[in-house]
Amino acid sequence: MIHEVDEGLRQLLAESGLEASGVEVVFDAPTRDWAARRSAPTVCVFLYDVREDHTRRASGGGEVYDADGFLAARRAPARWFELTYLVTAWASRPQDEHRLLSQVLACLVSTDSLPPRLLTGSLAELGLIVGMDGGGTGLDAPAASDVWSALGGELKPSLGLRVRAPLAGATTAVAPPVTEGLAVRSGQRTGPPGPDERETPEALRRLRYVEVAEPGREGFGGTRERAQAPARRRRGERQP
């Protein structure tokens, strides 16, 4: 799920004009060594905190159907996580960095969720809204100054970005639908069948359910047989 959020953010920032202007979007940790190797204008989107949102836990589940419309699996409810990013701009001059950061800020605050067309993998399959908050960080997330201290770099202007994304629950396969009736074996047997013995039509008989079927519904092995409705007697006619 995390790499799918990264890809959605990369495409979102690329469409804002960064890709056309030759600015690279990376997800590296902006350490002192990394900054020394940087040579081109870059926007760094560094993920530094991942926490579950316990308030959004659900108890229900979902169902997965195959191409024929039959139930194929049951899925546990998704669990929601908050991903906190530190967004920085890197260029040769502070003015250029501020211009890039302003362009990124305008892109992030213009939408409150990742567009569905940018979602891939499990995020696209779930079809849930991946929310974004480009104006700050989570309440419990570490402060930007603490992050810079841990990275061993100098404090730079940065944006806090928080993404709320679902993690798909485990999927459990279910048994295939019943397509045949109950099999009944007739005859006497004193012991288990031998390896060379085979079931014959005379020894194996399937129960068939004869009843009136509802329109559009099928029974075991196909459409159920309709029971013959009794003929209506005319007025005054005696019953035989």
From TrEMBL:
Region described as Disordered: 181-240
Name of one Pfam family that matches: Pvc16_N
Chain intervals with Basic and acidic residues compositional bias: 195-227
Extent of Basic residues compositional bias: 231-240
Sequence ranges assigned to domain Pvc16 N-terminal in this UniProt record: 4-180
Name of the protein described by the UniProt record: Pvc16 N-terminal domain-containing protein
